[in-house]
TrEMBL record:
Keyword Cytoplasm applies: no
Right handed beta helix domain span: 81-217
Keyword Signal listed: yes
Sorted UniProt keywords: Signal
Protein known as: Parallel beta-helix repeat-containing protein
Signal peptide per UniProt: 1-23
Xref: InterPro entries: Beta_helix, PbH1, Pectin_lyas_fold, Pectin_lyase_fold/virulence, SO_2930-like_dom
Length: 411
């Protein structure tokens, strides 16, 4: 081991073996020049380097950015090493990463002006025991996203915490091969969101005190569409009853307070072995993207959804009627007995007439005493027909488990 540089502010350690340089570790402590020291280390880093931030509060006034591959940024614990952007003067994020094979671990980002940590267009990114938070509580002035990997491949989020985002606390968008596990999302508009993504496993997480707990969305007008193969299992999505505080015009601003899980316009989604309850409006909603769009390639309907083996708690005791007509329709059609699971019943016109193909039907089975309400579009429009079904046995079927996400964490 060779000490290359040592000062009060930082220490660079090179690890050598048989004459070969394997890595350098740059140790940085909180100082008045913390921003310059961290950003300089990120610019000058070589592949294989470790940037180690000691315990303490780093007060930063500008965005940090990393574009060097195979670098690790680490602290001494999410409650010990804190990057504080409360006085941020410029930059759209707290930390931006645009390089491959990066590990972020054991630190917090607080009060970023925009997104806390944005990762874009990378292969292999790990967030390990990272916390993002806006410390003044839920408000629309908070940054949109906490952990925000987008357009990336091989994403691991493990043991993380996200609090106070005005859009989504933990968000993965337009990405492929994703694991979100062992994490907590609280007091965000959306706790955990998988959007326009392929092959994702979301498990062993807690989503609580958000507006909506876990969202699996697909939206038009984006380069990657047709979200599919998402497994949501072994999670607790409970007590997500925070009023929606998204800024005006944000699509997530349409999420009703008190929703446990929402699936919108995705295919091949499996929701199983979760605990979902104490959500004011509904525990699970399966819905079509209902807004107008000029995107002719976009398919707005969910299909091949499987919901099984879940435990449901109380729901619907204080439905949010401020976000469109959904809650009021549910209340009226259920005669005040709000269901655990809601499906809006919307499918292409040809399927309304001929029926859905078997492989695209929703399967709801083995969920204890769960209740369901599914709208019948024709009946809903014609007063002399039944507007909805409350018979959960209509959705019984054989579950075809989706494959687990295979992820090599040793990059």
């Amino acid at each position: 081991m060779k000490f290359l540089k040592l000062s009060k502010q930082y220490l660079v350690v090179s690890l050598l073996c048989s004459g070969c340089l394997y890595a350098s570790v740059q140790i940085i402590e909180p100082t008045e020049n913390a921003y310059q020291e961290i950003q300089e280390a990120l610019i000058l880093a070589e592949p294989g380097d470790v940037i180690r931030l000691t315990s303490g509060i780093f007060k930063l006034e500008d965005s940090l950015s990393l574009d060097v591959p195979n670098v690790q940024i680490e602290g001494e614990g999410m409650d010990q090493t804190i990057l504080d952007f409360s006085n941020q003067q410029s930059g759209a994020q707290g930390l931006s990463v645009t390089s491959n094979n990066v590990t972020l671990q054991d630190f917090s980002v607080q009060n970023a002006k925009g997104d806390a940590i944005k990762v874009k267009g990378v292969t292999n990114i790990k967030f390990l025991r990272v916390k993002t938070e806006w410390t003044d509580g839920p408000k629309p002035e908070n940054g949109a996203y906490g952990l925000y990997p987008v357009e990336s491949t091989n994403v691991l989020i493990d043991g993380c915490v996200a609090i106070g985002a005005s859009d989504a606390g933990i968000y993965v968008g337009q990405s492929t091969n994703i694991i979100v596990r062992n994490s907590r999302a609280e007091y965000n508009v959306a706790g955990i969101e998988i959007e326009n993504s392929y092959f994702a496993d979301v498990y062993n997480n807690l989503a609580t005190n958000n507006t909506g707990g876990i969202l699996v969305f697909d939206l038009p007008g984006l380069p990657q569409q047709g979200g599919h193969h998402v497994r949501v299992f072994n999670n607790r999505s409970i007590g997500n009853n925070t009023d929606n505080f998204a800024p005006e015009g944000n699509i997530v601003g349409e999420v009703p307070r008190g929703t446990g899980i929402i699936i919108q316009a995705n295919s091949d989604v499996e929701i199983f072995n979760n605990e979902i309850g104490d959500n004011d409006t509904v525990n699970i909603a399966v819905v079509t993207y209902a807004n107008e769009t000029d995107d002719k390639t976009y398919y707005p309907h969910p299909k091949s959804i499987q919901i099984h083996g879940n435990i449901f708690g109380h729901t619907g005791y204080n439905p949010d009627t401020s976000k469109g007509d959904l809650a009021q329709i549910l209340y009226d059609l259920s005669n005040g007995n709000m269901p655990d699971i809601f499906w809006d019943g919307l499918v292409p016109l040809s399927q309304i007439i001929l029926g859905q193909p078997d492989e695209e039907k929703i399967i709801i089975t083995n969920n204890g005493d769960a209740t369901v309400l599914a709208i019948k579009p024709i009946g809903f429009m014609l007063p002399f027909l039944e507007p909805a079904t409350l018979d959960i046995t209509e959705f019984d079927g054989v579950v075809t488990p989706l494959a687990k996400v295979e992820f090599n964490e040793n990059f």
